[in-house]
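Rotation project, supervised by the postdoc (A.L.). Task for the rotation student: set up a whole-complex structure prediction and record inputs and outputs verbatim in this book. Inputs entered:
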Amino acid sequence: MIAIQKEDVDVGKLIDAAKQLGTGAFVIFDGIVRDDDIVEMELEAYHDVALKELKRIAEEAKKIHNLLSVDIIHRIGRLAVGENILIIVVGAGHRAKAFDGCRFIIEAIKAGVPIWKKELRKNGGRWVPGEHQHGTGKI
Amino acid sequence: MIAIQKEDVDVGKLIDAAKQLGTGAFVIFDGIVRDDDIVEMELEAYHDVALKELKRIAEEAKKIHNLLSVDIIHRIGRLAVGENILIIVVGAGHRAKAFDGCRFIIEAIKAGVPIWKKELRKNGGRWVPGEHQHGTGKI
Amino acid sequence: MKVKVRFFARFKELLGTDIVVDAATGIALNGLIRDIAAKNSEGYDEIFDENGTFKDFVILMRNGKRIDSTDAPQTKIEDGDEIAVFPPVAGG
Amino acid sequence: MKVKVRFFARFKELLGTDIVVDAATGIALNGLIRDIAAKNSEGYDEIFDENGTFKDFVILMRNGKRIDSTDAPQTKIEDGDEIAVFPPVAGG
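Outputs recorded:
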């Protein structure tokens, strides 16, 4: 399951659904709205492009790290402190691949999927600056 | 929660219970009974020593990787293919620490916690050889 | 010809989004966005420097594909194009 | 003096576990385990080499603390000790 949605997901159910022949390890990343003096977080996506990009990243991770399953749920809309923002469930035969694959996916999402976050504070909002990427320079 | 037990756990509930001020990322490891032509897996622990060791590893990981929370549930007894063997839930402020902390814990468990696995096949059983550790050599 | 322009994040707050324009045939990507951004000077200044060139961090897409902003003057807009303009991403 | 010996995994299958023995005062760790393992030659051969020395991979604990197997001959057993003998661990 690859999705960009407002609704939360049940991590345990995602894991159960991803189990298949040969799975020996899951590594799950769960990004949480951190209490940086904020009231809420607002997330916005360029939906179609972001979804296509998540699917591409999942396929690339599967190939590079020999993964058996990849689920990515990125939430959008208003989220309170402590809520899940992003859940990545990676299944593999062995732990090293599951760890490397999961890490690869989160780094790729941070680097290039068109989703933005705004921290809503008592005294106003602030768009979270990206860690990566410029409009110029063909790297 | 650090435990060695027969019962399975609800990963989603573990995560929810671990959320605290400052948590921005969880990394979860979930080890699964892999279908290596086996019928079941039987796990045995030197319970008191293994539990003490899991607690020591959790504390060490917290210190080294600046983690906010660590939960480890290692199951014992007979487990069918696809069942959870080991669940590690690591909470941290940021993803790098959560990944490094979770990896540290699973490697430490593999290296030195007195728990053993026997693969039960149609034609008999086989104790899984350890990846580490000898009785001699003060390394 | 009809073109849709989508701004995101703080660009969207200043300039709106899903803007459908009737663009002149032969217009280039930089000219198209300059014309639209001109309606709000704060929005314009977020995206363009004093020479009317895209600021370094501004990211452009045409129909879901990245366009290097230095190529914008050579990128001719076509009928039905969807153009996206946004600041660095911060998902995850 | 009373001592408890615990074998695990395949050692347990061959030799049993939670064996409470009345050990002679001054007995060393290697002697204690040799005496108990002697009751089953297959179990003995899993743990000891032809010289009666612990095989390299055998792990020993006294009261939950590792004892290097090369130190076993110098390790005197005390009343109430819990000794554990096991093959390399394979949890996780």
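Student's summary: Chain B has a mean pLDDT of 94.
Supervisor addendum: The radius of gyration of chain B is 16 Å.
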